[in-house]
Specification:
The protein is of the alpha/beta class. 31% of the residues lie in helices and 22% in strands.
Length: 232
C-alpha cells in the first residue's frame, strides 16, 4: 500500500462501552459515538448507550451470543477494513473493555496488517464493575491482595487448550470468571481439587450494572445446584 492509498483510509477506534450502565461510558467513547461515520457494535451493548450514536452514523450489529452469531469474527474484521477505506471515523463498540476477553487484540492485529490506523479507548470491565455494584470488593486488605481474571469459555484450538484451574486456585485470593456459568459444573470441582475448600464463597452476577442486575450467592459446594434450581 502506497502513501496515497493510506491517505484515503479512515481510522478505527476500538471503544469499550463498559458493562451496561450508560453512566460508566467514558467521555471520549461518548464523543466518538456522537461523531462517528460508522458504528459496528456488539450484542451486549445496552440500548441507552446505543442511543448515544449520532444520527448520521451507519449502524451495524455484529453481536455474538452463545449459539447465535450474527457475524463470524473474520467477517467483522473484514467489515471494519472495508468501512475504514471509505469512512473517516469507524467505531468498533465492544462491551466492557476491548482488551479484556473482548477480541480487541485480534481485531487490532488484523487492522494493522491491513494498514488501517487503530486507537483503543478503554472501558470499565464487568469483572470489576459488576462485583462493585453488588457491594463486593475484589480486593480488601484483610481478605484479598490478589485478583485473577479468567475466561470460563475458552476458544477452540487455542495454543493453551486448558486453563490451569489448580494453579489459579492456589495463586489468587479473588478469582473473577467471565462467561463461566455454562461450564460451572466443570470449573467448580477443578477449583476444589486445586485446594479451595468447598465452603469457599462464590457470587454469580448477571446483567451487571444494569437496573435488572441480579446476584446469586453460595459456596463452591452449593452453587451448581443453586444455578440449576434458579435456571440461571
Amino acid at each position: 500500500m502506497n502513501d496515497s492509498e493510506r491517505q484515503h483510509l479512515g481510522k478505527v477506534y476500538l471503544v469499550g462501552a463498559g458493562p451496561g450502565d450508560p453512566g460508566l461510558m467514558t467521555l471520549k467513547g461518548k464523543q466518538l459515538l456522537e461523531h462517528a461515520d460508522v458504528v459496528i457494535y456488539d450484542a451486549l451493548i445496552s440500548p441507552s448507550i446505543l442511543a448515544m450514536i449520532g444520527s448520521q452514523a451507519e449502524r451495524i450489529d455484529a453481536g455474538k451470543r452463545r449459539g447465535r452469531h450474527s457475524k463470524l469474527q473474520a467477517q467483522t474484521t473484514q467489515l471494519l477494513i472495508e468501512k475504514a477505506q471509505t469512512n473517516a471515523v469507524v467505531v468498533r463498540l465492544k462491551g466492557g473493555d476491548p482488551f479484556v476477553f473482548g477480541r480487541g487484540g485480534e481485531e487490532m492485529e488484523d487492522l494493522i496488517k491491513a494498514g488501517i490506523s487503530v486507537e483503543v479507548i478503554p472501558g470499565i470491565t464487568s469483572g470489576i464493575a459488576a462485583p462493585a455494584y453488588a457491594g463486593i470488593p475484589v480486593t480488601h486488605r484483610e481478605y484479598s491482595s490478589s485478583v485473577t481474571f479468567v475466561t470460563g469459555h475458552e476458544a477452540a484450538g487455542k495454543y493453551r487448550p486448558q486453563i490451569n484451574w489448580s494453579a489459579i486456585a492456589q495463586g489468587s485470593e479473588t478469582i473473577i470468571i467471565y462467561m463461566g456459568v455454562h461450564n460451572l459444573a466443570n470449573i467448580v470441582p477443578e477449583l476444589i481439587a486445586g485446594g479451595l475448600t468447598s465452603k469457599t464463597p462464590i457470587a454469580l452476577v448477571r446483567w451487571g450494572t444494569r437496573p435488572e442486575q441480579e446476584e446469586l450467592i453460595g459456596t463452591l459446594e452449593t452453587i451448581v445446584r443453586q444455578v440449576e434450581r434458579d435456571e440461571i
